[in-house]
Amino acid sequence: MMSVLQNKNFFKLFSGRMATNAGDSIYYVAAMWLVYELGGSAFYTGLAGFLTLIPQVLQFLTGPVIDRISIRKVLTFSQGLQAFMILSIPIAHSLGVLNVTIVLIVMPVISLLNQIAYPATSALIPVILPKEQLTKGNSLMSFAYQGVDMVFNAVTGLLITFFGAITLFWTDSVIFFIAALLYWRMTIGKEATEAKEPAKEFSLKRETRQYMKDLKAGFQLVLGSAIVKLFGENIVANFALGAMMAILPAYADFRGGSEVYGALLAAFSAGVLIGSLCAPLFEKIPVGKITMISFLIGAGFWISSVFMPINWISIVLFGICSIPIGLTNVLFYTILQGCVPRKFLARVFSVIASISTSAMPLGSLAGGALGSIFPSSVVFLGAGFSFLFISLYIAMVPVLRNLPSVKKATIEDFKFNQEILNGETVSS
């Protein structure tokens, strides 16, 4: 797997992603805990989660743009701007004007910038790496996502206890500047990152028409394929995960405080990381069967973690339950990267992300609202049953139950519309 890192551009992308995720982890943990402290209620963390997740629903708007402009510039710009936005929180604190409203305004703006960076990264991987290295590359990128999250979620929880949330924002802005520099130093050929069409004189009308055409093609390709079957389980699962993340500060406070909050987030990331790193071992096993079995087992671990009175064991059980997320995410992404034509990649990934996560903001609101009425442990337990739903849903949908392995998957398995693949749009 380490041989993939010998690719200089992938190494820079990987390093930049690690820096970005370190910044994201520090910011998210510190911001959510700051909202909980300033607002004093699970309702505010639910609202914060809702506002942070709403931009994910709009990710489909970024796909057509990313497919046509320099991905290197997109990544550099988004990380640099995030650095400046994060600085606004400690500056407001220094001026004595910081309140929960300011944090609630900054959080969705930073999240919106992330919606540009994530599909850009996914679209760039198959450009940098050959098809036979995609699983390993995605596995390493998942390590960049989840491994860094695991470490910094835990560390941030402890640092909040010793230094307070505000101090961490200063350091976080520096980390995002480093990520921007790493992305800028990539030396990918123009044919891989720039617009594929010859330069023309700018025309707002023409560009708008082309953008809408690309946007329509992305939706048609996804909604007219077997991918649409995934949205049933994704919407329910993401609603539950949104509720879980909203209630987590209150649940952690109930079980011990900010240290437990960081530990729970770290354990969850660790489980996703383990699943991601193990994904190459499952390339020859049908993805449908892996999903059914792994999420059924994961449900048992999540539910049992709530009833475990010993904190460290409960945290470990919760971490194990997230292994199926990392495992199946890498396998699904690898299949899509190998089957979807390159010119559609960013659009397909952004549309999938937008639709799949559309329920997450509502779940966050619901989790916060329910957490102000019922004990946090009850809401947390209810969210755990989403994994059981995933397993049953996959079992009941033939096209998902019979999904082949990464090694055997072909474009025909997703039943894409050939008219769209060849002509980009079809009449509505």
UniProtKB/TrEMBL annotation:
Membrane-spanning ranges: 18-36, 42-62, 83-110, 158-184, 260-282, 289-307, 313-336, 348-374, 380-400
Source species, domain of life: Bacteria
Major site of localization recorded for this protein: membrane
Compartment(s): Cell membrane
Keywords: Cell membrane, Membrane, Transmembrane, Transmembrane helix, Transport
Pfam family of the protein (one): MFS_3
InterPro entries associated with the record: MFS_trans_sf, TM_effector
Bilayer topology term: Multi-pass membrane protein
Protein name in the entry: MFS transporter
